[in-house]
Design goal:
There is one protein chain. By secondary structure, the protein is α/β, with parallel strands linked by helices. The chain folds into two domains: about 120 residues, Aspartate Aminotransferase, domain 1, CATH 3.90.1150; about 240 residues, Aspartate Aminotransferase, domain 2, CATH 3.40.640. The strands form three sheets. Strands 4-10-9-8-7-5-6 form a seven-stranded mixed beta sheet, sandwiched between helices. Helix 3 packs parallel to helix 10. The longest helix is centred in the C-terminal third of the chain and has 22 residues. The chain is globular, with a radius of gyration of 21 Å. It starts with 15 loop residues before the first strand and ends with a helix.
């Protein structure tokens, strides 16, 4: 059948009809264990009763108003974030890419309003992924994503990830901001060491540079703390969020301090759909669920258990797995040549497990935060069989 969709995706011949918890089902009722969760989006799994209820109830009231009018729930969710983070102010978006764009604009506006129009340079990192908009692909700097989209945009400098000397050389009094993922998602699940994030904070303080965290994939409790940077204690000036914060409903945000946010006055930024009533109803419920006593402790425990299980898998397949990576429930392993992550991902899918691929030949897992040890064991068993099959296939 002819498709009328622009061919930017290549999905497998598989259609899901419904989801429940950590499982997805096709029309025949066959089940798949979902360990990618919409790429770290379905934080509470599929059709979580509290999220369904929140969306249904709001859908019978108001769907959309735009930002021409006040949405009280917007203040309710913003307050939750600000009372539990470094931030004073929040701007709601529909996606992570939009959150990044807002963060970059805010950083440059801050310096311009302080009399430093020359401070436009954003230092980013090799292996980064910040979204697919024009500004975001230039921030990420991946040549594959930039090919065919014109000249490279001025104002972005990439340095080696977690390289202390490179950071010291690159971050100067001419730098506007440093943009980093505390745990790289698309770039191969590399977690920035805590002492490296603290170094970046110190360098930014010394030079008057703003520190921006991209927690679009590693935030929303995925590492066992609400925000991944909290493990280091190094607070940002701006932070971008999305994916898990909506539990499957399109929702993103960028958070910042009063010192930065006060420069984004009326007319400097906007969004038609950002912070709409449906998104706010779901976002509030998601926040309330993952901040319940013991929830993040469960994520920490499950992250440790899954990583231990993967270490055992690496011991079983030392000729195939180079190392285990990630943090919390954003984790996976790097494959050795000639084995390819997407091939193993396909073999696992054929056996009922949904996983993902990331850069540097990494097989990625970002399951719902509600998984149990039994789910983790099932996933590891499937991966074990998939690795054996990949080896047998040559």
């Amino acid at each position: 059948m002819t498709s009328h969709l622009i061919p930017t995706y290549a999905p497998p011949d598989l259609v899901f009809e419904r989801g429940s918890g950590v499982w997805l089902y096709d029309a025949k009722g066959d089940a798949w264990l979902d360990f990618i969760a919409g790429i770290a989006v379905d934080a509470l799994g599929h059709c979580h009763p509290a999220l369904v209820k929140a969306l249904q109830e709001q859908s019978e009231k108001i769907w959309h108003l735009s930002n021409m009018f006040d949405v009280p729930a917007r203040e309710d969710l913003a307050r939750r974030y600000c009372e539990n983070s470094f931030a004073d102010l929040v701007f709601f978006t529909n996606s992570g890419t939009e959150a990044i764009e807002g963060a970059l604009k805010a950083a440059r506006k801050y310096h311009a309003d302080n009399g430093h129009n020359e401070r436009i340079e954003i230092v980013t990192f090799q292996g980064a992924f910040h979204g697919r908009s024009y500004g975001a692909i230039n921030a990420g700097g991946n040549p594959a994503y930039m090919k065919g989209f014109g000249p490279q945009m001025a104002g972005f400098t990439q340095i080696a990830f977690a390289d202390e000397e490179a950071a010291k050389a690159a971050i100067t009094k001419n730098t506007a901001a440093v943009l980093i993922e505390p745990v790289q998602g698309e770039g191969g699940l590399r977690a920035a060491p805590d002492n490296y994030l603290r170094l970046l904070r110190d360098l930014c303080d010394e030079t008057g540079t703003l520190l921006i965290y991209d927690e679009i994939q590693c935030g929303a409790g995925r590492t066992g703390k609400m925000f991944a940077h909290e493990w280091s204690g190094a607070k940002p000036d701006i932070m971008a969020l999305a994916k898990g914060v909506g539990g499957g409903f399109p929702l993103g945000a960028w958070l910042t301090t009063n010192a930065v946010g006060e420069h984004m006055v009326v007319g400097t930024h906007g969004s038609t759909y950002g912070g709409n009533p449906l998104a706010m109803a779901v976002g509030i419920t998601l926040w309330d669920e993952i901040t319940k006593p013991g929830f993040l402790d469960h994520v920490t425990q499950m992250g440790q258990f899954l990583k231990q299980q993967m270490a055992g898998l690496a011991d079983t397949h030392p000729d195939m797995i180079e190392d285990v990576r990630g943090k919390g429930l954003l984790t996976g392993f790097k494959l050795k040549e000639p084995y390819v992550n997407r091939a193993v991902m396909g073999l696992a899918r054929d056996r009922g497990l949904l996983s993902g691929a990331a850069g540097d030949n990494v097989l990625r897992m970002a399951p719902p935060l509600i998984i149990t040890e039994d789910h983790a064991r099932q996933a590891i068993d499937v991966l074990d069989g998939s690795l054996h099959a990949a080896r047998d296939a040559g």
